[in-house]
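[audit] Reproducing an earlier prediction to check determinism. Same input, same settings, fresh worker. If the tokens differ from the archived copy the diff job will pick it up downstream; this log only records the rerun itself.
[audit] input (260 residues):
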Amino acid sequence: MLERLEAISPCRMSAASLRADMLLRPLPMPWLLPLAGVVLVAGAAYCLGYEGLSGGAGAWPGSLVWSACAVLPWLGVFELVKRAEWDRGRPVGAAPLAALLVATGALSIGLEMLVDALGGGRSAPLGLLLMRRLPAIAATLMLLLLARRERRSGEAAAPETADEAESLRGQAAAIRWIKAADNYLELHLDGRVRTMRMTMREAAAILEPLGFVRIHRSFLVNRAQVESVVRGGKGLTVRTRDGDRLPAGRAFGGNLRGLG
């Protein structure tokens, strides 16, 4: 958790890097909970404005409940897709994504109908219920599209010079492990850290034939530096001979066989 907070610390990143991280990395709870609160209040304000324009009289308590049913689930969709794509290292397919959107819409409308029924009220027509959700659905789709464009941009980024790739090969024996940081890599060597402009995919293609193994979307480790693979309550962790603990993604579980 601390590692993720450090990874998205705005004090250590440019605006472009922070934007990319917010779009691509799953947010830790200390960031996610305040964001959910902001989205909840923004949805309630939208509801009050909608009621006012349509001649109705809304109130904050009811608007907050509506926002929890109609707006907040779409933040959950965005974070769920981000987490799945982060762990898998590839985009979620169109069919599963469409199914998730439809299921979320049905759940959202069902929750609002249930709240109305429990309160003794009458739900709006289905078409109106769906129309009120269109801004949240559109915002979710826009964020997903921006995240995919950011991912493609990062994967297409090439090393600044061919010398960078050759330099990486030359340092392979001294590198303990590598961490991705947007379009840069952090090379953890013997007591020092060096940054290099290169994507993790490019680094893996260069270093895997030299004894490195991909254990996470953001981590590549020198097989010779692995001491053990530890299973804990939060999943698998790779422990290096220097005592560092690196997270292992579920999508890369097959790469852990034979380590440590």
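[audit] rerun output stored. Observation attached for the diff report: Confidence is low (pLDDT under 50) at residues 1-14.
[audit] end
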